[in-house]
Structure formats: structure tokens, C-alpha cells
Structure to design on (71 residues):
């Protein structure tokens, strides 16, 4: 019993979904990195975690864009 979502598949709403995805995920990433900098004293560990979190953010955004464009 899936409702009809054809009205939400327009280019405008897909673009808005992608923008929301980027802004929301960047907001979450920024908060996570702030917590990381507050609690980790070792600069090398912070740098490694920053790179790891950024790679995860990129991967999740790619997956999110794929879902938005193909659903």
C-alpha cells in the first residue's frame, strides 16, 4: 500500500532533497567534528578521524543522491 509519489519525483523536489541532504549531513558532520576536537588531545588521532569522517560523509551523500534520483 505505497501511496502515489509521482508528484515528488520532479526535478525541483529532487534538487531540494539533495540540498537538504547536503545541509543536514554537513551540519551533523560539523557537530561531530566539534565533539571530536573537544575530547581528543592527540592531533594525529584527530586528523585520522577527521579524514575518516569526511570519507564516510562523502560515501553517505553519494548513496543518498543515488536513492533520491532513482526512487
Amino acid at each position: 500500500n505505497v501511496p502515489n509519489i509521482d508528484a515528488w519525483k520532479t526535478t525541483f523536489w529532487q534538487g531540494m532533497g539533495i540540498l537538504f541532504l547536503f545541509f543536514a549531513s554537513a551540519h551533523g558532520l560539523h557537530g561531530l567534528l566539534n565533539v571530536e576536537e573537544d575530547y581528543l588531545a592527540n592531533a594525529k588521532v584527530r586528523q585520522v578521524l577527521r579524514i575518516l569522517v569526511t570519507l564516510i560523509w562523502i560515501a553517505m551523500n553519494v548513496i543518498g543522491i543515488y536513492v533520491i534520483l532513482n526512487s
